[in-house]
UniProtKB/TrEMBL annotation:
Pfam families: Pyr_redox_2, Pyr_redox_dim. Its cofactor is FAD. Residues 10-336 form the FAD/NAD(P)-binding domain. This is NAD(P)/FAD-dependent oxidoreductase. InterPro entries: Class-I_Pyr_Nuc-Dis_Oxidored, FAD/NAD-bd_sf, FAD/NAD-binding_dom, FAD/NAD-linked_Rdtase_dimer_sf, Pyr_nuc-diS_OxRdtase, Pyr_nucl-diS_OxRdtase_dimer. Residues 80-102 are annotated as: Disordered.
Length: 480
């Protein structure tokens, strides 16, 4: 860094201190004498560390462990209760998030040679960012990694009722007795899973479409819906909020009940009275107040980029993670950040960008994701419907998961798997696994999709016995 008290100069300036911004800064300067700074107005570590991935998986883990034990004779007899201990679960969640103390993350950044500035970063010119009265100038690049924020649909009375968003759900302190969840995607399904674990008595899911997890293969949403219904969830498909009334509203903070009971009128006229409302109806890129209009970039909607993660027309400006609208997943944002960091480093050193490492192509059709419901949903690539819409002539391997490894996990194991194969190229373009223990299957499928491994070659990738991964052999056998 150099400059006076009001102006500082770095090689790389990153706006947004989540894991995506951290990776971009780290890769851009690692092993060099270049300098970087992260500008963050909340917590270094970002949404994932304190309000999303990490606390949500912390909340889901105990219920999953108890369900696994309850499935096995010899273990189930030792269980006095299959419901997780509420105090223990929330305590573990707080341990994972560090009580929303980001000091260890700041320490990591500084140990990596990255400075941290607290405040809102605003682009005020080419390679120039303002934080209050301070100006920060970038020699090489400005990287926007501001993520996304929860969307609240424009429904009468909903915003005024101060509904929970995902931040409240992952940081809950009060467990509502009755709750209505708006949405049927990943956030909604995972939240419903842990809310039921923690003892919510009445839980209603309001889903505009006709299935859960609509971006996945249909069987995935069906199996998750069946499991949630069996645990007591009331899922209303083809239904929407019409209006919300909550006379006693209070700004009580994350995870507290935000006032008294609410009355939610649904399409069709039904009224649901609840103690809390959780809105899990999507997210939108956090591009407001970045000053983008001042450099000729649209402020509403995602910040579009090419595969180098560069904003077209602004060769010094990069956007990575949720903010660019490509894929709203932490691991894919970190992938984009690694690409962007490598591109910045290469350009700073005068190297060409011919290598595949400088182009983010995986998020066009090889995106892996795990939904940590019970059962788990693990998928990568395209669904059969998406492949056919893209004009691909596909063949499909589709079957229940029933191998020795699953029987050892649970004598009554229930799971399903599907491969989508491009017939012309004889390569896997999509894979979906649903069932306990399937989260660890998705990386092998990701390698197959990204590597475009011919199906005949996959025959020689022998699964270990007795594991759930033996389903790969059964799927390939079905294609013979």
């Amino acid at each position: 860094m150099d400059g006076d008290s009001q102006t500082s100069t770095y090689d790389v300036v990153v706006i947004g201190g989540g894991p995506v911004g951290e990776n971009a800064a780290d890769y851009a300067i690692r092993g060099s004498d270049r300098t970087a700074v992260i500008i963050e107005h909340e917590l270094v570590g970002g949404e994932c560390s304190y309000w999303a991935c990490m606390p949500s998986k912390g909340l889901l883990g105990p219920g999953s462990a108890l369900a696994a034990a309850a499935a096995l004779p010899g273990a189930r007899e030792r269980l006095s209760d299959t419901a997780p201990d509420r105090t223990g679960v929330l305590g573990r969640r707080d341990e994972i998030t560090g009580g929303r103390d980001d000091s260890s993350q700041v320490e990591w950044a500084r140990s990596a040679g990255i400075d941290v500035i607290r405040g809102h970063g605003r682009i005020v010119g080419e390679r120039e960012v303002a934080v209050d009265e301070r100006r920060i100038v970038a020699r090489e690049a400005v990287v926007v990694a501001t993520g996304s924020v929860a969307s609240i649909p424009p429904i009468a009375g909903l915003r005024e009722a101060r509904p929970w968003t995902s931040r409240d759900a992952t940081n809950l302190i009060d467990v509502p007795d009755r709750i209505v969840v708006l949405g049927g995607g990943v956030v909604a399904c995972e939240a419903v899973t842990w809310l039921l674990d923690l003892g919510v008595r009445e839980l209603t899911m309001v889903v505009r479409g006709n299935r859960l997890l609509p971006k996945n293969e249909p069987f995935a949403g069906e199996m998750v819906a069946d499991a949630l219904t069996a645990r007591g969830a009331d899922i209303r498909f083809g239904t929407e909020f019409e209006s919300v009334e909550r006379p006693d509203v209070a700004d009580t903070g994350y995870g507290r009940l935000h006032g008294g009971p609410a009355r939610v009128t649904l399409s069709g006229g039904d009224v649901v009275e609840v103690d809390e409302i959780l809105v899990a109806a999507g997210r939108k890129p956090a591009t407001r107040e970045l000053g983008l209009s001042g450099i000729g970039v649209e402020e509403s909607g995602p910040l579009g980029v090419d595969d180098h993660m560069i904003v077209p027309g602004h060769p010094w400006l990069y956007a990575v993670g949720d903010v660019n609208g490509r894929v709203a997943l932490t691991h894919m944002g970190k992938y984009q950040a690694r690409v962007a960091g490598d591109v910045i480093a290469a350009r700073a050193e005068g190297r060409n960008l011919d290598s595949p490492r400088y182009s983010a192509f995986a998020d066009h059709g090889a995106v892996p994701q795990v939904v940590f419901t019970r059962p788990e949903v693990a998928a990568v690539g395209v669904t059969e419907e998406q492949a056919r819409a893209d004009g691909i002539d596909v063949t499909v391997a589709d079957m229940d998961i029933a191998v020795a490894g699953t029987y050892l996990l649970d004598p009554d194991y229930s799971g399903h798997a599907k491969l989508v194969i491009d017939r012309a190229r004889d390569v896997v373009v999509g894979a979906t696994f649903v069932g306990a223990g399937t989260a660890e299957l998705v990386h092998s499928a990701t390698v197959a999709v990204v590597g475009e491994v011919p199906v005949d070659r996959l025959w020689h990738a022998v699964p270990s016995y007795p594991t759930v991964s033996e389903v790969w052999l059964r799927l390939l056998e079905s294609l013979r």
